[in-house]
């Protein structure tokens, strides 16, 4: 509800031709909320605002980039999907192929997962299927466990020959000691 009040105030400033004041209001509102509708409204505002150098497209693109990062940090996956869909439509209509490809590279995969249903009393009541989104940007940040496992196996293989080699050296030392002792004594076990 407070967002509606803010939006009315922003619309009033826009109707008065106060673009800079409206931009400041959007920035102040975004300090208080990360709601996707606010971000989309801000991007639309930047696209339609009157700017002296006609840099509306770049300003709107910056808003989309900031919104994506903000929603990523907040962990709002569904909102982030809505934002990316709107950004894709924006680049399809206005942008070029390179910009559209960059947005498409950010689009998530939709994955079906199963999760347990637990009642308020803590009793398991079965399973449900849920959809989750896996974003390419988030996968890059996550540690690559397969690579770490492969490195660990490689290190084991490096250590085993060293151990085997040290055992051979130890065996050879024992044999040479035994040979020396056998010359001086009668037998070596």
Automatic annotation (TrEMBL):
Key words, A-Z: mRNA processing, mRNA splicing, Nucleus, Repeat
Subcellular location: Nucleus
Region (Disordered): 170-189
SMART domains, sorted: HAT
A single cellular component GO annotation: Prp19 complex
Entry annotated with the keyword Repeat: yes
GO biological process: spliceosomal complex assembly
Phosphoprotein found in the keyword field: no
Gene3D superfamilies per UniProt: Tetratricopeptide repeat domain
Amino acid composition bias (Acidic residues), ranges on this chain: 178-189
Record-stated family: Belongs to the crooked-neck family.
Protein name: Crooked neck protein
């Amino acid at each position: 509800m407070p967002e509606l009040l803010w939006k009315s105030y922003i619309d009033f400033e826009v109707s008065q031709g106060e673009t800079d004041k409206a931009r400041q209001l959007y920035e102040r509102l975004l300090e208080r909320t990360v709601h996707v509708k606010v971000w989309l409204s801000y991007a639309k505002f930047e696209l339609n605002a009157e700017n002296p150098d006609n840099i509306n497209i770049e300003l709107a693109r910056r808003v989309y980039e900031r919104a994506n990062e903000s929603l990523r940090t907040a962990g709002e996956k569904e909102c982030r999907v809505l934002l990316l869909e709107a950004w894709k439509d924006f680049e399809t209509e206005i942008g070029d192929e390179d910009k559209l490809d960059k947005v498409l590279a950010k689009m998530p995969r939709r994955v079906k997962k199963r999760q347990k249903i637990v009642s308020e009393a803590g009793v398991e009541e079965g399973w449900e299927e849920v959809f989750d989104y896996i974003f390419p940007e988030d996968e890059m940040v996550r540690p690559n466990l397969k690579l770490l496992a492969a490195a660990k196996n490689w290190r084991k293989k490096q250590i085993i020959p060293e151990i085997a080699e040290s055992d051979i050296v130890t065996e050879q030392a024992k044999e040479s000691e035994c040979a020396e002792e056998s010359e001086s004594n009668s037998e070596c076990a």
